[in-house]
Design goal:
Blueprint lengths: L1 E3 L10 H7 L2 E7 L4 E6 L4 E2 L4 E4 L7 E2 L4 E2 L4 E5 L8 E6 L10 E7 L7 H5 L19 E4 L9 E4 L23 E4 L18 E2 L7 E6 L16 E6 L8 E3 L3 E2 L6 E11 L10 E8 L1 E11 L2 E6 L7 E7 L10 E8 L4 E6 L5 E4 L7 E10 L7 E12 L2 H6 L5
Parallel strand pairs: 1-8
Antiparallel strand pairs: 2-3, 2-11, 3-8, 4-7, 5-6, 5-9, 9-10, 11-12, 13-28, 14-17, 15-16, 16-28, 17-27, 18-27, 19-24, 19-28, 20-21, 20-27, 21-22, 22-23, 24-25, 25-26
């Protein structure tokens, strides 16, 4: 049901009524039309008084008294004068509007504006006065992941669902990372698609809904900035769960003919500083079959830099710094990562942006299968949180059949 803005009435309410109102969330916004979706994440209740919206210090719209929200119920409202290009937007319990305690939830999109984002960020209800969610193109909306209060919790949705529960739109990632070479660019997906419903890239998610998401996006740090002329969208890996949980996803299995050297390349951008400490750090690893798939070697992101690591069934655990990082200067910067395995030399080497590689020794376990492996993101472990962008994952495997066919020897 759509409601238009009504005259604002500033009245109090019971403690119980305010507690119920605290369960209201803005879950989808169409800046072009001013239509806003509000969802009740708690038990059923009816609003006792008008509950105001605020955008750029405009308070003429509200959720009227006597509006029924069922458990999980959704209502839509049409806001007057919502800026279609850049605005903040918040739900309030009541006045005074300069009190963060009265502000329930909201967002800022498009560009920093004069509004309440600074007030919200001071009360951990937004990620900063200058933090913005991206501006959706015409015909698309902004949707909330359902968990946090940062710009990373909002995404451009190519399949709007204003007024009804968000449904995941299954997308198909072609199995293009395959023997002996291939690249996955994520360009075939709809913006807002999640990896959890995308074929060939399964997810293991042990967190509350919305805490760990992998979505197709087209923005960097809230600004639409294509990575290159031939890449207009990528995956955002957003893990806000600091507990000891199993959060990861992986691509299709590569089936080599015989034990073969290989190289993985991918583009990554760090959007939120990795943890300064923890029992694990966010990693992109290459997993080899050893009974099940076991982590073998990969790239690890720590607060002070990017590391090459050997783990699991790849020999003696070790790590070495590839490139130092300084935050916030290095946030949102795309880097091309190369990871090369040489079974003849028993080494794994890594480099960033074509710089001099660093290496570590490997010794694949006798029980492991060197011919079957896959690319995997891993975000498990206490304190292991982060937000990353991933694009153009490619693999190239030395194929002995091709080498001999061309008259060369190994």
């Amino acid at each position: 049901m759509r409601r238009t803005g009504l005259a604002l009435t500033l009245l109090g309410g019971t403690v119980a009524a305010q507690a119920q109102v605290d369960n209201l969330r803005i879950t989808e916004v169409d800046p072009a039309t001013g239509e806003v979706e509000v969802t009740n994440i708690g038990d059923e209740f009816t609003t006792s008084v008008n509950r105001p919206f605020c955008h750029r210090f405009v308070y003429q719209n509200n959720i009227p008294a006597n509006t029924l929200f069922g458990a999980g119920g959704i209502q839509t409202f049409s806001l007057n004068n919502l800026d279609p290009a850049a605005s903040d937007l918040w739900i309030y319990r009541s006045s005074p509007f300069g009190s963060a305690a009265n502000l329930i939830q909201g967002l800022q999109y498009g560009a920093p504006v004069t509004g309440r984002a600074g007030l919200a960020s001071g009360d951990d209800k937004w990620s900063g006065a200058d933090s913005v969610a991206p501006m959706p193109p015409s015909g698309m909306t902004l949707s909330w992941d359902g968990f946090g209060n940062t710009a990373f919790d909002w995404y451009v949705d190519e399949t709007p669902s204003l007024g009804s529960a968000e449904t995941e739109t299954p997308g198909t990632i072609p199995p293009s990372t395959a023997f002996p070479a291939g690249v996955q660019d994520f360009e075939s997906l709809l913006l807002g698609d999640t990896v959890s419903v995308i074929q060939n890239w399964p997810v293991v998610d042990s967190s509350p809904p919305g805490a760990f998401t992998i979505r197709t996006v087209s923005d960097v740090l809230g600004t639409t900035t294509p990575r290159s002329m031939d890449s207009s969208q990528w995956l955002r890996i957003h893990d806000a769960d600091p507990d000891d949980v199993q959060n990861r996803f992986y691509g299709p299995t590569i089936e080599a003919v015989v034990e073969s050297n290989y190289e993985w390349r991918f583009f990554n951008a760090v959007e939120a500083p990795p943890p300064a400490s923890g029992d694990n750090y966010p990693r992109y690893t290459i997993q080899h079959v050893d009974g099940g798939f076991a982590n073998t070697w990969g790239i690890e992101y720590r607060n002070d830099g990017v590391y090459l690591v050997v783990i699991g069934s790849g020999g003696t655990p070790a790590s070495t710094l590839i490139q130092a990082s300084t935050y916030p200067d290095d946030l949102g910067v795309w880097q091309e990562v190369s990871l090369i395995v040489d079974f003849g030399m028993d080494t794994v080497s890594a480099s960033i942006d074509g710089q001099t590689p660093v290496s570590l020794p490997i010794n694949l376990a006798a029980t492991a299968d060197a011919t079957r492996f896959r690319f995997c993101y891993r975000g498990e472990g206490v304190g292991n949180v982060g937000t990353f962008l991933l694009d153009d994952v490619s693999v190239a495997v030395d194929d002995p059949r091709l080498i001999f066919a061309n008259g060369f020897e190994e």
